[in-house]
Amino acid sequence: MSTTTRRPVEPLDLAGIDDLLSPDELAVRASVRQLCDERIDPYVADWFERGSIDDVRGLAKELGSLGVLGMHLEGYGCAGMSATEYGLACLELEATDSGIRSLVSVQGSLAMFAIWRWGSEQHKQEWLPRMAAGEAIGCFGLTEPDAGSDPGSMRTRARRDGSDWVLDGRKMWITNGTVADVAVVWAQTDEGVRGFVVPTTTTGFSAPEIKHKQSLRASVTSELVLDGVRLPGDAVLPEVVGLRGPLSCLNEARYGIVWGALGAARSCLEAALDYAGERVQFGRPISAFQLTQQKLVDMNLEYTKGLLLALHLGRRKDAGALRPEQVSLGKLNNVREALEICRTARTVLGANGISLEYPVIRHMNNLESVLTYEGTVEMHTLVVGQAMTGHPAFR
C-alpha cells in the first residue's frame, strides 16, 4: 500500500496547472497578487462606482517599483522578465480589475513596446527608464472615431513642414490619455502610416477624458485631439513604415489579454463558489444542488482550458515561436469564455450578482470592453479563418 499523502484538491486548480509553473513564475504571481490585495482590491469597487481612480500617478509608481511596467522588455530600466511571467502578472491584475490591467498593458505593451521596438535610441533613453519606473505615463493613439477595426482608413494626418512634422486629427477610446506624459500617435503621411512620439505638453495636443462609461470605469479613457501639433523631425519612429508598426504593438497587448481575461473569470468563479457555499435555500447551501454544481463545474472547465491555452502560448512566445494567428486564437477564446463565466457567476449570485459588494457585475461589464478592444470577435474570427483556409474574408 502506498504511503504517499495526496495534497488536498485546490478547487480553482483542479488540473494542477500550478505544477507546470517555475518557482520564479510563482513568485512573480504572488508579488503582483500581494500588491493588488493591499493597494487596489480594497478601493477598486469604489473607483469603479465613482468612475475615477484615486492617485493614478501614485499607483503607476507602485506598479513601476514592482517591475511590472514593460516587464517583458529588455534594458532601459525594464525588468526583462519572460512572456509567461508577464502573462501571470496580467492575470492577477485583471483578477483585481480590467482597468488596472489595461493601465499596465497600454503602458508596457503598447506605448513602451512601440518606443522599444521602433523608436530611436534617443526616444528609448528619454522615455523608457521613466516609464518603467512609473514616473512617466504613456498612451497609444491608433483608434479613431471612424476607424477601429480598419486602421488603414485613419484620418489623422502628419505632414512635413520644413524639418518639422505637423499632426492634425482625432483619436478615440485611448486608455491613459488624460494622465499621459507621452503619446505614441499613428498618422497617415505621404510615405505611409508612421508613428510619432508626442510629449503631451506640446502645443495643440489635448486629451479630454471620456465620461458616462458603464465599463472600464476604474480606468482613464480619453479622446486625443491633435490640432496643428508641431513636432521636430526626430519625433517620428524611425524603424517602421506602414501598419505593421501599430499591429505589432497590438499583438503584444492581445497576448496580455489572453491571460488577463482569465483573471476576471477566476475572480467571478471564486465569488460564485464562495457564495454558493454560504447561501442557504430550502435548508441546504445552494452549492449542494445539482444545477448549481453544473454551473460551477462548467465555469471551472472553461477557465482551466483557457489557462492551459494561455500557458501554451506563453511558452511559445518565450521560445520565439508565437504567431499572430495563435494570439488571435487565444484572445478570441479566452475573452469570450471569460465573459460567459462572469455571466454564469452572476446567475449563481442571483440579485446580489448586480451589487458592487461582489466583483461579478464589475468584471462582467469590463469584459464587454475587453471583448471589443485589441480586435473584435469578428476580426479575430477572420484572422483564424484565414489561417485555416488560406482565404482572407475581411472584405
TrEMBL record:
Pfam families: Acyl-CoA_dh_1, Acyl-CoA_dh_M, Acyl-CoA_dh_N. GO terms for biological process: fatty acid beta-oxidation using acyl-CoA dehydrogenase; fatty-acyl-CoA biosynthetic process. GO terms for molecular function: fatty-acyl-CoA binding; flavin adenine dinucleotide binding; glutaryl-CoA dehydrogenase activity. InterPro entries: Acyl-CoA_DH_CS (IPR006089), Acyl-CoA_Oxase/DH_mid-dom (IPR006091), Acyl-CoA_Oxase/DH_mid-dom_sf (IPR046373), AcylCo_DH-like_C (IPR036250), AcylCo_DH/oxidase_C (IPR009075), AcylCoA_DH/ox_N (IPR013786), AcylCoA_DH/ox_N_sf (IPR037069), AcylCoA_DH/oxidase_NM_dom_sf (IPR009100). Residues 139-229 form the Acyl-CoA oxidase/dehydrogenase middle domain. Its EC number is 1.3.8.6. Its cofactor is FAD. Residues 23-135 form the Acyl-CoA dehydrogenase/oxidase N-terminal domain. It catalyses: glutaryl-CoA + oxidized [electron-transfer flavoprotein] + 2 H(+) = (2E)-butenoyl-CoA + reduced [electron-transfer flavoprotein] + CO2. It is an enzyme of class 1 (oxidoreductase). It comes from the Bacteria. The keyword Disulfide bond does not apply. Residues 242-388 form the Acyl-CoA dehydrogenase/oxidase C-terminal domain. Keywords: FAD, Flavoprotein, Oxidoreductase, Transit peptide. Belongs to the acyl-CoA dehydrogenase family. PANTHER family: GLUTARYL-COA DEHYDROGENASE, MITOCHONDRIAL (PTHR42807). This is glutaryl-CoA dehydrogenase (ETF). It comes from Mumia flava. The lineage of its organism: Bacteria, Bacillati, Actinomycetota, Actinomycetes, Propionibacteriales.
